[in-house]
Amino acid sequence: MPGESVASRTLAVLGAFDEEHRRLRLSDLGARAGLPLSTTHRLVAELVGWGALRRLSSGEYVVGRRLWTLGLLAPMQTGLRETASPFLHDLYGATLSTVHLAVREGDEVLYVDTLRGNASVPIVSRVGSRLPLHSTGVGKVLLAHAPDDVRRAVLSAPLQRVTPYTITQPAVLERQLTRARSDGYATTTEEMTLGACSAAVPITADGQVVAALGIVVSDLRRSRGRLVAALQVAAQGIGRSLGG
């Protein structure tokens, strides 16, 4: 649009990609960015040349490796991932289940690192993906410890029903968040994906909850206590390392 800088137009093109739009044709990129097709074509060509985008044989565009590598240099993600990595591997080795490291970004949970376990348990999250706070274990933990205005905003907005078991009643979710703060962990039962349950605990450094650590299994009924204890030991180790 007239008056917009080249940088703002370039960011609009990159911002056209999200969790639901991982592959986009040139026309879709222009429409989502709100730019003329000729402008989109020029910017996309430059982004492909630099490595920020990649063109597939189908004609669609995806985020390029160079942009992803650049994102990993963000201090929060780099320091957290590197510090937590040995603890995630220990947790995975002890449980052989999928483990997640996540942070809150606005009203969503951002997955910073993942080690995948039993392939029979369906997993929808990937490193770099964002999911609703209210339907994930790590999300509930982060929402429970989020600022009051963030909790109020989430509880006052419509809660998306992802599966038939997703908690969509604000009063029920609020009680779960209160329990998560008092018990020190949160759980989900097929609320994000059918066939998958999760448990998660907060990671605290210097008195602040900075991330969440979660695990995904097919059933929590027999193993909840053991898994929560393992999560808490790992989370305490990560928190001490971050604080140090």
From TrEMBL:
Membrane-crossing segments per the record: none
Keywords: DNA-binding, Transcription, Transcription regulation
Source superkingdom: Bacteria
PROSITE patterns per record: HTH_ICLR (PS51077), ICLR_ED (PS51078)
One Gene Ontology term of the molecular function aspect: DNA binding
InterPro entries per the UniProt record, alphabetical: GAF-like_dom_sf, HTH_MetabolicPath_Reg, Tscrpt_reg_IclR_C, Tscrpt_reg_IclR_N, WH-like_DNA-bd_sf, WH_DNA-bd_sf
PANTHER family: HELIX-TURN-HELIX TRANSCRIPTIONAL REGULATOR, ICLR FAMILY (PTHR30136), HTH-TYPE TRANSCRIPTIONAL REPRESSOR ALLR (PTHR30136:SF24)
Protein known as: Transcriptional regulator, IclR family
Lineage: Bacteria, Bacillati, Actinomycetota, Actinomycetes, Propionibacteriales
